[in-house]
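DM from R.C. (forwarded with permission)

"hey, sorry to bug you on a friday — could you get me a structure for this? deadline for the figure draft is monday and I only need the backbone to look sensible"
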Amino acid sequence: MKTVLPLIVGVVIGLVSPAQARTLDAIRSSGALGLCAHPNSLPFASKTADPPGFQVEFGHALARELGVSLRLDWIITQYQMRSAGCDILLDAIADREAQGETRLRISKPYYRTGVALAVSPSSTLTSFRDLNERTKVGVQVGSVAAMIIGQRHVPTSTFGFESDSLDALSNHEIDAAAVTPTAASYFNLTHPDKPLRILDRDESVADLNWNVAVGMVRPDDALREAIDGALERLRKDGSIDRIYGRYGVVLQAPR
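My reply, with the result:
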């Protein structure tokens, strides 16, 4: 299964038209909250899999908190975003600069993530600082991690998807994979016979760490406040942790 990063989706959402936004009253009047998600991007979302991905499960939980149902708007390309008409996207980077072109308004963050190194259980690597000219690292094409690691003169292998670099690591083709903890954790869940070791993120490299929030397509203040309130309730009762935990993901608190 190919994994689509939230960051990649974040680039696409800049093409959403402001006219598609709806107020909280309009959402409640229609009886549905629209969530845009990729139909084939587990563990994030899937149109056909069971379980359907944490974005779908989390979307249902948010909709219930607002007193409505969830409408899934499946998108693959940036062109489909123009007509999707969704209200929210999940796992959005909670950074004003990162969302500068997307026109999204961001909720309060609900977890922290970034880029970590996945290594084999026998690897002697303990952090990004251990990478050198003898360690080959799998990176996603066009990613910030590819640029930063390349600037350190560390050999890299480029992959189109995080899952491809994790497969290459599992097959001993590379020494490490620079991926999100989400992708590595889901790989371990689905490959219990050959789990990888996930190193702690390096918080000293700001561009490789970020908070995550709900992205809202130009909401009114009432919708933003309602989403923030729903997040707080779902965080306090453990619902968010349980949803992500079903996909092997342990959430870290935002900073």
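R.C.: lifesaver. The longest helix spans residues 221-236.
me: no worries. The longest strand covers residues 209-217.
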